[in-house]
Amino acid sequence: MIKFIKAQPVLVTAFLLAAATMFAVPPDAEYAGYINRTVLIQLFSLMTAVAGLRSIGIFEKVTDLLLDKAGTLRRLGQIFVLICFFSSMLVTNDVALLTFIPLTIIALGKADRRTMILTIVLETAAANLGSMLTPVGNPQNLFIYDNYKLTAWVFIRTMAPAGLLSLIMLMLLTLLLPKDKCTISEHKTTQTDIAPLIGYSALFIVCLLTVFRLIPDLVCLIAAAACAMIFDRRLLTKIDYPLLATFVCFFVFVGNIARMTAVSDFFSGIMSGRELLVSAALSQVISNVPAAVMLSGFTRSGTQLLLGVNIGGLGTVIASLASLISFQFYRRSEGADTVRYMAVFSAVNFGMLIVLLAMQEMIIRL
Predict the structure, then answer these.
(1) Per-domain residue ranges for the chain?
(2) pTM of the entire structure?
(3) Tell me: the pLDDT tens digits for 288-305?
(4) Do residues 128 and 322 make contact, with C-beta atoms less than 8 angstroms apart?
């Protein structure tokens, strides 16, 4: 039990919050209306498609092609940062980090600790910031996009300024990396089977069409299940079921809170006109995915909530749980200096968080 709590602290917290509210609002027929089925199906299907593409080594092959041009540690770091930034828009921030952080540790195995730490920290920020630019980039985007019925144009228009400034800051920070010559370590890649590649790619396209409401969610779910059964049933074991369960628990929690007049009025009061700052601040404590679900019941400003929880993914290491992926990989690497890592991580993340929040506040006031 203790091991499970340590492994899934957000799920456990979400479950306890949902259970606590059930004493005040006993289960009834309205509970069924709490659950956003479309978001759960989209997440499940997207995770299946990405797990399939990752299982056939497609990301490593793309990386090999790009790294072939790297000559210095700085350029290598810039390549990894750009890969994480742009790939996270489609494969989500956690998948980008799961794929490219191990490759970074291998490639920089002979570099000094400071170079590796800064590179990994910038990759982590890049994945979190790049993922905010598309509805499929991370779970909170999928939820907000569907919950507030945003259009693709409104979504892109809202996130573009923060995304552009983020990319500029990231590339400026890569100038801190040394220009020393680098030697890229070799890693084995296997030949990719064409049939699974076509199948997983087709499923990914179906997921995108479902997100943009061009295909019914049930069709997407059937396609995901069929794809896994045909090509690799083990994909069904690689789905992040705790994340899906966390969403369900927060749906119940938020639904019950909304039916408690006093509590609902309190949250609505502190959120009014402060969606950006409140959502960014709450993300620092409980991470941005549950913050998005929790606060969605108390504001009609989906765009400000969208900005707040995405920018709020910067800051503490738990503000975006994807950041923990990078930290765990680095912590297990040879010669890891976790104190230095956290110092660099905090400096970069809080610095960018302050700049982005200040910019968005200026935009709001214009």
Answers:
(1) 8-182+190-365
(2) 0.78
(3) 888 898 888 888 899 999
(4) yes
